[in-house]
Amino acid sequence: MPIKRRAFVGSVLATAVTAGLMKSRFAFAKDAFSGIDAVGQAALVRDKKITSLELVDAAIARIESANPKINAVVAEYFDKARKQAKTALPAGPLSGMPYLIKDLNDINGEIATSGSRLMAKHIGTENSLLAQKAIDAGMIVLGKTNTPEFGLMASTESMLLGACHNPWNPAYSTGGSSGGAAAAVASGMLPVAHASDGGGSIRIPASCCGVFGMKPSRGRMNFGEKEKMPGDIAVENCVSRSVRDSAMVFSLSEDTSAHAQFKPTGFVRGPAKQRLKIAFSTLSYNGKQPHDDVKASIEATAKLCKGLGHEIIEVKNPVSGQEFVDAFLTVWASVPAQLVQLAISLKLKPEEVLEPWTVGLAAFFAKQPKDALAKSLAYFKKVETAMDAFMAQYDAWLTPVLSSTPPRLGEQAPTVPFDTLYERITSYVAYTPIHNVAGTPAMSVPLGWGKNGLPIGSQFAAAKGNEGLLYALAYELELANGWAGKHAAVWVG
Asked: What amino acid positions are annotated as catalytic residues?
């Protein structure tokens, strides 16, 4: 980068530090951009202070430095990205900004494995909706991020793509299924990356990796029929280090058409003056308390919110236990059942192209009564109604994201015997799926740390369509207990 541009970016960093927008250590970043969030980096391009190619080259260098240690990026489009950066890009607040897409989503003409040997040679024939929205916004896709097979796991340990390692301690899990995205952001490769969530897959890795993640309301992003899962529980957005970046990506991705299910939120710029009535609970829907470190962290978050003037009201979880787990697993397992049939139709042995966990889920589904899926989806409607009534009483609901800090890699690998893995996953992921079933927005905010030095996210949810309220609260929490200056052990910023 020319000396004048380096000096300019240095002055931008100094100004940001003075304004309290980022910690001073960012002034000593390995490159001139890594301490600036995506909105800030794109502004430098827009103001012609730097070029998009410079951002792309810097991001590629960071990926090449960190990725051998954590395996977050599993497909690289570096040459294509450099060529795109030299062209005239669409105007927009993130135009010119490098981006990564989760490997559950297609990019036209590129390998799209979904983390599975079954799809190892699959080539995308079009851009998925959220990838296309990013491209339309002028963002430059550098590659794909690691994911467990078909996003079915709470840990990113694909037999095809290899395990993704937590940047805070590489012996531990990044969570799933957007583990590669969260690890890429947490390690400083990029400030923001695409993510998706069918049972917690934005919030789980955000919690594990100490980044911010917002799951939108169901229907907010307007996927279209072919992108829906049974029960319509999957949504997409991103993970990021700053609340501002997530809010911006959200505003560029949400449905703003005349037929939108919700009034568009737009770009939420900062905290609100409104004081909130926040429900608070640490018991999961199976009636168990989380690990002591998690419980203490969420209680500290409640205390922080109370100190900021919000009203905290301790409540009982409105959904109870095993009936929810059984219904959710039935719906969840219906996809693996279809995958097994697909493998058979291709004259392939399912156990050779699908992971043991996926095959086990299919076997679980096969044992259910014929009407089990229909009954489970009907139960989902009851949960949605109960949650609507519950959330109508409060502005937000604070709970843990997970029952413990991240497990060691291997503890939730797809090769663990099915019954053992079933118990581990359903115990670990006991707070996030309810919001996929209910369609409510929920976010993981990186406010806590375990005694082992690993991050602990705090989950806040709100009534459908209230992402703006959550983003405003997140901004306030970011200012009150900022995490931007905390850096992982594997950090290339």
From this structure: 102, 177, 201
Q: What is the CATH number of domain 3-322+370-480?
A: 3.90.1300.10
Identity of the amino acid at 390:
F
Nearby residues of 121 by Cβ (< 8 Å), 6 or more positions away = 111
3-state secondary structure of 239: strand
- Both tokens of 45, joined, read 């391009």
The residue ranges of every structural domain in the chain are: 3-322+370-480
Terminus-to-terminus CA distance in the chain, angstroms? 16
The span from the CA of 326 to the CA of 165, in Å, is: 30
User: What are the distances in angstroms from CA 17 to CA 12, 56, 185, 271?
Assistant: 9, 24, 20, 19
Is residue 157 classed as helix, strand or coil in its secondary structure?
A: strand
Share of the chain above pLDDT 90, in %: 89
Task: Provide the whole-model pTM.
Answer: 0.93
Position 32 scores a pLDDT of: 85
Residues near 353 by beta carbon (within 8 Å), at least 6 away in sequence = 116, 117, 118, 343
Phi-psi region of 266 (alpha: psi -120 to 50; beta: other; left: phi over 0): left
Q: For 455-483, what is the mean pLDDT?
A: 98
- Decide: 122 and 111 in contact? Cβ < 8 Å: yes
CA atoms within 13 A on the CB side of 236: 29
* CA dihedral angle for residue 111, residue 117, residue 121, residue 125, rounded to 10 degrees: -50
Give the residue from 333, 104, 97, 73 showing the smallest Cα distance to 196: 104
Q: How far apart are CA 469 and CA 248, in angstroms?
A: 15
